[in-house]
Amino acid sequence: MRKMIIGLAAIAVMVPAAAQAMSVAEWLAKADALKDKGIFAVGSPDIALLGDEVKAAGAAYRAGLAKQVAAGKKPSSCPPPVGQVKISSDDIIKEFKAIPAARQKQSVAQAWATMMTRRYPCKG
Helix, strand, or coil here: 90? Predict the structure, then answer.
């Protein structure tokens, strides 16, 4: 019985994390709403939310690359070291808006990985 309760608690903790994955469409809608607010967007919690979503996508992307390398596989892309990638919020918005509407249901993490793979192919 105790194992079952622990298992259910673990699932309960995992479900909200999985449910929090933001789609590209949601991310863009929030970004557009902030842009529409202009100067009044300063201090909006959505600024941090969008930034955190991109940071989490970047961390997941880097973790995926590390897993590929640890498994002896060629990484899907070869970005510069952490802190040396220069991508502005305008770059991200442009990349995400270029995704066809039908595919904007994908998560920000998926779109980020696709963008990074395209931007930073491995040479050789």
Answer: helix
Model confidence at 97, in pLDDT bands (50, 70, 90)?
A: very high
Q: What is the pLDDT of residue 14?
A: 35
Question: Please, are residues 30 and 108 in contact by the beta-carbon 8 Å criterion?
Answer: no
What span, in angstroms and rounded, lies between the C-alpha atoms of 85 and 10?
A: 35
The three-point CA angle 25-52-22 to 5° equals: 25
pLDDT tens across 106-115, in order? 999 999 999 9
Q: Which residue, 120, 115, 109, 112, is CA-closest to 21?
A: 109
Encode pLDDT of 42-57 as tens digits. Answer: 889 999 999 999 999 9
If you count them, how many residues does the chain have? 124
**Residues 59, 62, 64: CA angle, nearest 5 degrees:** 110
Q: Got the DSSP string for 11-70?
A: HHHHHHHHHTPPBHHHHHHHHHHHHHHGGGGTT-HHHHHHHHHHHHHHHHHHHHHHHHHH
